[in-house]
């Protein structure tokens, strides 16, 4: 035992050293890059959100160094005339592909499929998504995050939520004491958030939420099916801080009225429970149920990993359902919209999240779709933008570091060709992106994207979802 302890200390100590030295190397090579964006219109996304016209923004050492002050001599000048600067976007609900499959036998046998982290992250960066909330976090995501922190990969900041109450690779918990242990285990493993999942029973759900509060971890997630038929006040409890989809609410009732939506909103308000409406997911479900052509037509589909392209087209579980079910999906979309209206009316904060990575939801590209849908559902352009910037940062507890354009915050920024306050779809007219103070200009974005596209085209034939599943069975 003692030996093991010493070994652990040694490993931690040496890996700490390594981290410091790589970080220093990364920073020193980065330190020389100082940028000044001139004549740009800043949409700061602060609560007041007063647009600052024709401003000069200096970016230095990863951060927003000054606004409307002098330009350092060695700064690289970026012309921002007629352009608009917004904070980098946050997708509050993603599932990024990561290595690993069940039944691997380390160290002689590696994962069945593995992924190039840069290619996984490129669609986020190309779309100005500079922070993501991973709601199905596994150790491999911690690895991806480390690659980004080291500077080996250009990618977003990643917040991680560990699932409790799912099946397969997630932590299962059948009793309150299982639930509490699972929370403590997740904390020790290095996850910052807990995601409660569909299959928890009522007592265990409550114990998980309570233990997470004790461990200072916020809780996001599904509403367990065990609550169906009970009163909504049973599952709206303090520290269940964020509902992962509006669909969770629609699963708890057959009454899709505005009155029901208002009841949910009132209880959410009372318990400080925020909502990810996740309209894009519901729309995508309906779209692929209708036709698989809608999958192929998705913006950014060519950047989806070939394994997922194959799965979405060849093993699509939504496609081929009855017309009645398609009509039901439409009803669900309409109820989602009522929920957004009711939550807005009650003043419950909503944050933008897409479920990126699941069938029909393309990483990065889908967040712009979500913003459009939020506006169609009744949010103002500025409110939709806040849901994908300041509010997301606030829920994650990092609003002192990102989410708005203010001096001292990290330089996660998007330079847009058109004003998104006039038209929300202008968020996708990206001129360039800053990721942690690193400037990715349009040429670089296009090169990064075509690298992914070329690799996908060259390797398409190698990935077959059904074959992969079969090989797991054998
Ligand atoms: Zn999800």
Automatic annotation (TrEMBL):
Annotated keywords: Hydrolase
One Gene Ontology molecular-function label: hydrolase activity, acting on carbon-nitrogen (but not peptide) bonds
Transmembrane region(s): none
Ranges for domain Amidohydrolase-related: 85-440
Domain of life from the UniProt record: Bacteria
Gene3D superfamilies given in the database record: Metal-dependent hydrolases (3.20.20.140), Urease, subunit C, domain 1 (2.30.40.10)
Record flagged with keyword Chloroplast: no
Pfam families: Amidohydro_1
Record flagged with keyword Disulfide bond: no
Coiled-coil zones: none
PROSITE patterns xrefs: PROKAR_LIPOPROTEIN
Protein name listed in UniProt: Amidohydrolase
